[in-house]
User: Fold this.
Amino acid sequence: MKKSVIILLLSGIQAVTAYAQVDTTGIYGDRADSLEASVFTARTNTNYLSKVKDIRTEVISSAGLMKMACCTLAESFENSASVTVGYADATTGARQIRLLGLSGIYTQMLDENRPAMRGITAPFALSYMPGPWLESIQVGKGSPSVVNGTESITGSINLEHRKPTDGKPLFLNASVMDDTKSDFNVTSSLQVSDNLYTVLMGHVDGNFRTYDMNGDGFADEPARLQINVANRWLWYSPKVQVRWGLRYVHDTREGGQISGPWKSDVTNNIANAYMKVGRSLRDDGSSSIALVADYTLQKTASAFGNNGYDAGQHSIFANLLYLNKFTDAHEITAGVNATVDYIDEDINAGGLSINGTSRTLAQFAPYAEYTFRNGEKFSLIAGLSGTAVPQYGFYPVPRLTVKYQPAEALVLRANGGRGLRFSHPVADNIGILSTGKSISGDLSARVLEDAWTFGGNATYYFSDNTYLSLDCFNTRFASALFADREAANAIVLYSLDGHEAWSRNFQADFSMEPLNRLSFTLTGRLTDAKAWQPSGGGRELPLSSRYKVVFNTQYKIGANRWIFDFTASLNGPARVYDFMKDLRDEDGMLLYPDGKTPVYPLLYAQITRRFRGFDIYVGGENLTGSMQMHPVVDADTPFADTFDAASVWGPLMGAKFYVGFRMTIWK
Assistant:
């Protein structure tokens, strides 16, 4: 334990002094650190639906990220019903999201409008984005712009970072939980010269020990140590902006049986470099040209009992774009982007062994997007990408977004379009490695998944801070790769091959501020998602909750010196796999007598005391103590073909408490 403490402390010191996070700031658009934009701050609400965005967008501001311990992106969505976060398995701590009732692999992750968290990076990537590094999170439902590529199917999540021009020489944040999980963050924005700015960012987290709260012999969370450092820069002149940055992540996880032979051991190393160059072609900024280039290298080495997965990925993204705003009403963006991934894998899982396999996956897409605006009353964005996929063919990818504001208080939106992405059989289904089941199917195959999403949204604003919003979205797949895990001792990877898979999602949001410094938000989501399976035809997607309700309130007193946050959520039932219907507890009672998971509540609370440039906060998570008591099937025989540690639907640990501080030094 002493050794772990020393390592964590030294890593924290290294994070303070080392390089920090990538700046992927947009080349054009309204930004607080852009050349043309005045320095403004949007409404101070913590979570809200944007009134000005063309696509239905939920914004989680920096204040919203401070409502909880919020160590990483994986822990930043508890106030949102749009995004559901769960565990991929019960051994590695890998987190996964769902948007519109479908896996997060169908949601395009954007790092300041730059595609990120792709391929073999996806299973653990949510843990590699520290919450204190972020200025805001923007969750867009539906089909976004074609400018950033065509991989979005259900929507996009864009991350905005702290800016080089923030004027904060030092920001520190640290927290520790009663389960010994500790988190330390540092950012420093500096002006190097009249034209040059930089921001340094560092993050380290880990835990000193593991726990087994459900008594199954397996650690509820793996022993972890993550070091995450980066540096990004901004240089500008009246005509040119240049942004570039570097980032490095090292993460180790050791889980599995506390005193038995079955272990999980995961090591990930990620390096990223990028550059953005933008040049204004007119003095008024109405026309510009930009080039975005990005390179990411990841190496992963992992073992799960007798299963193993070692992989490397080289990813290149390039985007050349031209913007021309003819008038206030008409503008066009045109360009070409390319995504190239080189992946090599060694796989030993479920009786299959694939060594030294490599594959190059590429998409080349010229695109054009036309925007028409009639003031704030009406906007139309029509985009078309002609995506060429080597060995697959040519795919037109149209997308359309319409926003209509017939009255000042009412905003109507409609959106639809196509999305394309390559499947990654192991990375997309990382939980299958935490089982002893046999696997059939080609683990190295890459299906080009093809789907259409359509939807609409209506929001009525009673006042600036009080609104009611309703939305409905429908996603249908033409091609996809799924894993059939219904059997007790076998997993089948299969392609739809013309069969149906779809998801319908309905959501209502109500937010109000009845009193000064008192706010309420109530959100409800209903999902109906089904897919064809070889074992049973068209069926409801397993372990996907039918509904979720979230209530959040915040109250500030004493000139905002005291802030009280409370969040409650109710998570609806989900269909379990067929083999889970026969599972019993220690008393011989069926765990899932109706074939559904139980409904369970979650409670979060936090109190913050603010001083001048310094905050102290204490809080608790999962205060109801809700837990999935039997997340590991056949835990006593981990090398049997019926062993399964990947059928997780709920929290793996009970109530947790934390304390932390934030400190900011301004110029």
